[in-house]
Amino acid sequence: MSIAREVRRPWKNVLYAYVDQYNQNRVDYGTGLKEQVVTDLNYLLQRGERQIRLRHWFAERGVTPRRCETKARLTRVLKETEDQVIADLRLHSLFYYEKRGMLHREDVIQRERLTLLRDGDAWLIVDVESLEDERQPEQGPPSSSLSEEVHGWETAKSVPLINHRGVYAAGTRSRAGLYDREAAAAYADQWWDSGNPEFAQFAVDCTNYISQCLFAGKAPIHYTGKRETGWWYKGYVGGREWWSYSWAVSNSFARYLEYSGSGLRGEQVERAEQLRLGDVIVYDWDGDGAFQHSTIVTAFDAGGMPLVNAHTVSSRHRYWDYRDSYAWSENTVYRFYHIPDEL
Question: How far from 161 is each of 172, 232, 244, CA to CA, in Å?
Answer without folding.
Answer: 12, 10, 14
